[in-house]
Amino acid sequence: MIRSIIIACAAFVPQALSQQSKYAEPSVPTGVPIPGNYSGALRPQVHFSPPKDFMNDPNGMFVDANGTYHLYYQYNPTSTTAGNQHWGHATSQDLYHWINQPIAIFPPNENSNIYSGSAIVDVNNTSGFFPHQNNGVVAIYTINTPTSQTQALSYSTDGGYTFQSYPGNPVLSDNSSQFRDPKVSWYAPTQQWVMVVSYAQALTIGFFTSDNLKEWQHVSNFSHHGLLGDQYECPNLVEIPMEGQTEPMYVLAVSINPGAPIGGSITQYFPGSFNGTVFTPVDGAARISDFGKDNYAGQFFYGIPGDQNQISLAWTSNWQYSQVVPTGPLEGWRSSMSLPRVNYLKNITRVGYDLVSAPYDLSAVTDATALIDKSMGNGSVDVSYSTVSSGALYFQINITNIPVVNITGTANFTFRSSRSGESLRAGYFLAPDSAFFIDRGNVKGFDNPFFTDKFSTSCPYNPSASSLSWSVEGVIDRSILEVFINGGESSATVSFFPEQALDTIEITSSGLNPGVRVNAAVYGLNSAWASLEDASGIVTGNITDYQA
Ligand SMILES: *[C@@H]1O[C@H](CO)[C@@H](O)[C@H](O)[C@H]1NC(C)=O
Ligand SMILES: *[C@@H]1O[C@H](CO)[C@@H](O)[C@H](O)[C@H]1NC(C)=O
Ligand SMILES: *[C@@H]1O[C@H](CO)[C@@H](O)[C@H](O)[C@H]1NC(C)=O
Ligand SMILES: *[C@@H]1O[C@H](CO)[C@@H](O)[C@H](O)[C@H]1NC(C)=O
Ligand SMILES: *[C@@H]1O[C@H](CO)[C@@H](O)[C@H](O)[C@H]1NC(C)=O
Ligand SMILES: *[C@@H]1O[C@H](CO)[C@@H](O)[C@H](O)[C@H]1NC(C)=O
Ligand SMILES: *[C@@H]1O[C@H](CO)[C@@H](O)[C@H](O)[C@H]1NC(C)=O
Ligand SMILES: *[C@@H]1O[C@H](CO)[C@@H](O)[C@H](O)[C@H]1NC(C)=O
Ligand SMILES: *[C@@H]1O[C@H](CO)[C@@H](O)[C@H](O)[C@H]1NC(C)=O
Ligand SMILES: *[C@@H]1O[C@H](CO)[C@@H](O)[C@H](O)[C@H]1NC(C)=O
Ligand SMILES: *[C@@H]1O[C@H](CO)[C@@H](O)[C@H](O)[C@H]1NC(C)=O
Ligand SMILES: *[C@@H]1O[C@H](CO)[C@@H](O)[C@H](O)[C@H]1NC(C)=O
């Protein structure tokens, strides 16, 4: 789902039968993973990024019956800019250690691209593709041509590693060049598949249902809600728990690009209810999933029951600058995914419904020994982490025992490069407004008019409490900072590109009321990629040997 160049009055070209075939450019390997060098100074070590070249949206995310997470992604294997889109593929048991697999889905012909979409496990063979198995995987995605966007299927009998395209493609057309990003889920009460798909420039999400994934009926539209921007993209509909309530609810997420309030791309979401055909939001509010600038096109894994916390990943970039960031010329790759996030709904002060987004269990990559473990009032702690070879840290700062009136003080954390003096800083003003900021303006490796420097959010206190508390936790990973406030009630994803590695963390607080405690802990993270390198330092990936 790239913003296509729109050719005025373009004629609709019906999809040819040749779509059954698969087109692989000679330079794009089939059947083998693409090797990657994950050692560059800007390469995230606990985040997923592609072995080389350009990646954008997460696609087709599902968890299989063995608990293996499958991530597909928008992938151009021939350039560090977008275009020539395929579905790359990686698998993981813990959402941090990823095995690069061969490219999963290729375009049907030279004039087409595979754009974003989703995948499901057809346990009941509703599609008829899977005569002898209950673990067949169907991918539902957009085929983009210069004049059309249509929805198509590919199916996999080997658990999602290799796919065949369905000869009856496309399965859904609208005579449009702006109709994309189908996300399909199973709605058990009506025993039907439900697709949400974007009529991008009509600012409308279409809802369709199907018994067999091949024939789709339009059942409703969700149009002009919340923030409009210039296009709606990558809708997601997911059943999700609401804290303190037994009945799960639904969230409809809609990505906007371009036209986000702080520029470029962003994701908004609507809590609500869904009855199999119509989604009804709880209120008229627009809620944004992230207050940074690098969190787009998030997708929820298929296969997690609706009464359990959902898990998502998003693309850690922004279309305003994703194709010009310096990782391309310096290291031959562009873009990574966010940390895996645990999501559920919660009633927070004033807002009523909030999508909590917290880091998924980091224990698979966290060092046992803390670099910093400190309890202080007003004070400061300053530690070099140049000994942490990944350059990646997990940190927590809890501020407790804050009085309910006459609150004062600030608490900051800064990551600095001892070599260049560059810094990435963030801080919390307890008063007057309980507000948090991030400033990437003193990181010097990338300059671009749209690469906004500063982000902030407010974090209102719970007025009924007898004393107040506040917390932030987060991960810094070479060129990505993610922060989670108050357990993930608000979160921010921020990319940054230092000239020299950041290697020092300083945490300071001052002006706090007497009795206020600042508890800080910082842990090194172990590279999830270094453990997969061969003797020459290259991550070769794997062809999972699948036994059906
Ligand atoms: C991997 O990239 C690093 C940094 O860009 C470079 O120094 C190293 O030589 C590369 N390794 C291989 C095997 O190409
Ligand atoms: C799956 O569907 C196909 C096509 O309808 C059918 O031939 C096959 O018998 C089905 N298999 C099972 C186990 O239901
Ligand atoms: C398809 O769209 C084109 C361009 O908007 C229009 O000229 C044509 O009449 C449409 N065809 C159908 C079958 O609606
Ligand atoms: C599969 O069939 C069972 C039994 O009819 C039903 O409860 C379940 O919802 C179906 N699930 C899917 C994904 O088709
Ligand atoms: C749904 O929205 C699309 C895009 O605006 C439009 O073409 C279609 O007619 C709408 N369907 C209905 C039933 O309103
Ligand atoms: C869902 O709600 C809509 C609007 O209230 C209604 O028209 C529709 O019939 C309902 N669908 C089902 C399956 O209950
Ligand atoms: C959220 O909590 C407030 C305060 O307890 C309450 O007034 C409000 O009704 C709750 N909202 C929801 C959506 O549960
Ligand atoms: C808060 O500040 C005001 C003005 O300085 C003062 O009069 C009041 O006593 C303070 N309240 C508390 C609980 O400290
Ligand atoms: C935190 O940063 C803000 C903004 O620069 C500054 O006003 C404040 O004094 C700093 N606080 C500490 C404890 O360094
Ligand atoms: C911060 O608070 C969380 C949640 O209560 C707790 O698990 C964590 O250990 C605390 N961290 C520190 C450094 O005190
Ligand atoms: C690659 O796959 C083989 C066979 O499935 C397995 O034994 C091996 O551990 C895998 N390697 C990695 C790095 O996952
Ligand atoms: C789960 O793993 C077993 C053993 O390796 C394998 O036979 C089976 O096909 C796998 N199932 C899925 C859904 O991947």
TrEMBL record:
Q: Which UniProt keywords apply?
A: Glycosidase, Hydrolase, Signal
* Signal peptide range: 1-18
Quick check: keyword Hydrolase in the entry? Answer: yes
Q: Which InterPro entries has this protein been placed in? A: ConA-like_dom_sf (IPR013320), Glyco_hydro_32 (IPR001362), Glyco_hydro_32_AS (IPR018053), Glyco_hydro_32_C (IPR013189), Glyco_hydro_32_N (IPR013148), Glyco_hydro_beta-prop_sf (IPR023296)
Give the GO molecular function terms: sucrose alpha-glucosidase activity
Query: Where in the numbering of this chain does the Glycosyl hydrolase family 32 N-terminal domain appear?
Result: 47-347
State whether keyword tRNA-binding applies. Answer: no
EC annotation from Swiss-Prot or TrEMBL: 3.2.1.26
Q: What is the superkingdom listed in this entry's lineage? A: Eukaryota
- Glycosyl hydrolase family 32 C-terminal domain segment(s): 385-511
The biological processes this protein is annotated with in GO are:
sucrose catabolic process
Which SUPFAM superfamilies does the entry link to?
A: Arabinanase/levansucrase/invertase, Concanavalin A-like lectins/glucanases
Q: Offer a single GO CC term for the protein.
A: fungal-type vacuole
User: According to its UniProt record, which protein family does this protein belong to?
Assistant: Belongs to the glycosyl hydrolase 32 family.
Descriptive protein name:
Invertase
The organism is: Knufia peltigerae
Taxonomic lineage from the root: Eukaryota, Fungi, Dikarya, Ascomycota, Pezizomycotina
